[in-house]
Amino acid sequence: MDRLPAVAWRDGAVELLDQTALPATERVVRCADAASLVDAIQRLVVRGAPALGVAGAYGVALALRDPAGVEAAAERIAAARPTAVNLRRGVEHALAAVREGRDPLAAADELAAADAAASRAMVAYGLDLVPDGARVLTHCNTGSLVSAGDGTAYAVARAAHGAGRLARLWVDETRPLLQGARLTAWEAARDGLPYAVLPDNAAGSLFAAGEVDVVLVGADRICADGSVANKVGTYPLAVLARAHGVPFVVVAPVSTVDLATATGKDIVIEQRSADEVTTFGGTRVAPEGAAAYNPAFDVTPPHLVSAIVTERGVVSPVTEQKVRAVAE
Ligand code: MRU
Questions:
Q1: Is there a contact between 125 and 309 (Cβ–Cβ < 8 Å)?
Q2: Model confidence pLDDT, tens digit, residues 224-246
């Protein structure tokens, strides 16, 4: 079966595989102007750091429909979500092309090709960190839905399966928006991986039972000191992994490393609507008017990260010097 790409430029519009509708429905959302792309990014029709970068870059071609307003429209796209550094980077990459009189579409195509190549290289490096018969725990969704290629952490697990090395992929459901249960499980089923979905709060007992050999997660922004912002719920996994002596591995392209952000405290964490927490599947579960705490990401400090796998090699131990060396 042909796979729809997460992001594509087709017939003058950005086409997005609608991740809000998966796994029930595979449908494409067409964004023919910058405003509709901003809306799609905020609703998570397209999501995941590398895919946001590619979408942002194609979005500059939409912004250019009004040459006088291109910079302002591009800024609205870049600011649609604050945490994943790739989004602003993707917009800036294509905007630089516009400023130099080049075609932003060609720049976006370059970015997509680089992202696919980075996936392949990360898989090659990451596979070395997955033991034979591995039971891998992952969080959120980091496969082909977040990338122009095979993705980041999930791509490593998928390759481990291809190499006959994956005994189990444990898929955190990833409350509140269920990127694990809806999206990673969908990809794992399509790819024939031996997977099981667990409630996020079952991870502790899974570690305690000795059922996890390695944690593989992605990242939305990696600071100069090696702090990792990723989907909320990642930090508790890192704490559990350390408590149980399990390697905690982050897989992310160099485009996710932001040397301008010194430490985790400097990362802007997106806060999302209370409704995402107080309702479930469209049904209210908390009392009317309940307040909620709903950060989209958390930050894992570098001392809890065993390794960061990039397309340029593996950073381990995670120190500022090594992070700078791989990203500069
Ligand atoms: O809010 P989302 O779904 O855009 O979350 C981002 C993510 O997909 C994850 O945090 C992921 O691990 C980083 S992107 C490969």
A1: yes
A2: 999 999 999 999 999 999 999 99
CA of 174 relative to ligand 1 center, distance in Å: 10
Distance 60 CA to ligand 1 centre (A): 22
Active site (catalytic) residues = 220
Q: Which atom, in ligand 1's list, is nearest to the CA of 218?
A: 12
Q: How many C-beta neighbours within 10 Å does residue 72 have?
A: 11
Spatial strand order in the sheet of 134-138 = 195-198, 166-172, 134-138, 214-217, 248-251, 307-310, 313-315
Given a contact cutoff of 8 angstroms between Cβ atoms, the answer to whether 247 and 215 are in contact is yes
The pLDDT assigned to 3 comes to 82
Write out pLDDT tens, residues 62-113. Answer: 999 999 999 999 999 999 999 999 999 999 999 999 999 999 999 999 999 9
Residue 64 CA, ligand 1 centroid: distance in Å: 28
- Per the listing, tokens 């122009």 go with 148
Please classify residue 134 by burial: count the beta carbons closer than 10 Å to its beta carbon, then call 0-12 exposed, 13-18 middle and 19+ buried.
Answer: buried
With a pLDDT cut of 70, the percent of the chain lying above it is: 99
Q: Which of 144, 143, 140, 64 is nearest to 96 (CA)?
A: 64
Determine contact, residues 108/142, Cβ cutoff 8 Å: no
